[in-house]
């Protein structure tokens, strides 16, 4: 298919969807019959209605939906010179995805092991960091939500929020100061004579994983806290009175109640890790290949935006699959996790 | 020693470790900002100095980046607060399946990695401005405002939604019955009710924009913000000047957080006082006639 068709399709699609959305909301209203609330325009008046529709319309169409569609569209095009664009060679192709798998746009002889390995390393490490964050945060979230006093929770919250506002780049830098070959820990170990050669924490990726686990810890904390906080303390008391051991109370009373919070924390932390750019750039060893810096290089080193778009879309697909898996695993709806 | 005491010690030990992990790296980075040694280190401490801070103020790139970051943050607040508010109000007025579909669309930016938001925005605007001959719109600062607002609006929407859940629609209906117009109801009833949420949303939007790196690094094109200048410096090498910058940023954040907390407490105290006053007056008017002073 020639790719000029694509753009008209992409531009028409949001219009169709918006029309469908209006028809759907009208039908839903009609179904309620006499119980239906007053119509949108009458309820808000012309001025406010226009503000709502224009603001939300511009945001959803121009800022959310169209950019994503354009990205997918670009990923399906070949890299051409400006003169060739729109010409007979400007047709849809899968060659950018082919490149991700085989490291060449035409031959399928060899796997593109560098990129594929980096992709799976990123996904696997992000899953591990997500689990680690859950383990680290759960006890404190439970303590804050169910055990301690309100005044103390407030202080804890303030303490938790402060480092959260420190820039991601600086958080990564803090770990470089700590773990670099001339860093604080190495200096300390050398001076005390525990080691006689500095340990290459960054080369061993200790720095990267410590920094990643640190960077998005608080997303997990707040999600867990909000979910556990809404649990009635009496349920825990009741379980305890009935003789349940502490681990059983957590397993079958607290955690089932906190499921939406666990799911939302997990999706957020995973997504932030898989898309992290600062920590891999600042803390990654010379041999580490995280996926996001590869995507960055497609754009601003190789100047192959078509390939970059394909790589970005692969990353996005991985995140979508993860969200769907978590939703399935925890049996919760999207509305419950994104709160 | 009984098991309760052991439990308590274990919990505090864990909390201590947790906060050590949280603050330790930042504190150490902070100390290196004051050490005269040219590599950021705590030990040996070669003498107290403020020269790294002094150097920052003379660094034109950092000053430029800071100004641009503040400007972008301001614009992002201007975009994302009204958009988030509109999106939240609309959410309360759609139902059933239409609502789930709408929710999926507006919440998707929260679950999309920041790099992808930056990439897709730049791709879209490059093609769009190229096709329509409006290339001047394809500008780093503008792209960054658009890209950041697309997900920050979703954050502000979530704040507004939480507040709207406590809104009593009877107030709106009462005003309409008493002859107020729709814009009047919006301006004099809904907006004042949303005020605290608007302030929180603006603060959150500004901070999210100011500290953002992932989206910005793609959308900023040839321009600079504080975080991209910072990341560029970090690639060149590690110097205490970066620690000094971190100390400044943390100090400003801390100040902001404390001020915000104090304001919130004062507002709560004022609200409690008003409530007590109202209760006293109600009791007085309900008291039997003979007991009135």
**What is the distance, rounded to the nearest whole angstrom, between the alpha carbons of the first and last residues of chain B?**
61 Å
Shape of chain A: flat
Order of helices and strands of chain A: HHHHHHHHHHHHHHHH
Strand content of chain A: under 5%
| The first-level CATH class name of the largest domain in chain B | Mainly Alpha
Query: Overall 3D geometry of chain B?
Result: globular
Question: What order do the helices and strands come in, and which of them pair?
Answer:
The complex is a heterodimer of chains A (339) and B (293).
Chain A: H1 3-31, H2 40-75, H3 95-102, H4 113-147, H5 150-164, H6 168-179, H7 184-191, H8 206-215, H9 217-229, H10 233-241, H11 246-257, H12 259-274, H13 278-283, H14 291-300, H15 305-330, H16 334-337
Chain B: H1 3-32, H2 51-57, H3 60-91, H4 96-111, H5 114-132, H6 140-164, H7 169-177, H8 182-211, H9 214-219, H10 226-236, H11 240-286
Helix pairs in contact in B: 1-11, 2-11, 3-6, 3-8, 3-10, 4-6, 5-6, 6-8, 7-8
Protein architecture, described:
- With 339 residues, chain A is mainly α.
- Chain A is built from 16 helices and no strands.
- Chain A has helices at 3-31, 40-75, 95-102, 113-147, 150-164, 168-179, 184-191, 206-215, 217-229, 233-241, 246-257, 259-274, 278-283, 291-300, 305-330, 334-337.
- In chain A, helix 2 (40-75) packs across helix 15 and helix 14 (291-300) runs antiparallel to helix 15.
- The two termini of chain A are 41 Å apart.
- Chain B is mostly helical.
- Chain B has two domains: 1-49 and 239-275, no CATH class; 58-238, MetI-like fold, CATH 1.10.3720.
- Chain B has eleven helices and no strands.
- The mean pLDDT of chain B is 84.
- The interface between A and B is large, with 93 and 90 residues.
Summarize the structure.
The complex is a heterodimer of chains A (339) and B (293). By secondary structure, chain A is mainly α. Helices cover 73% and strands 0% of the residues of chain A.
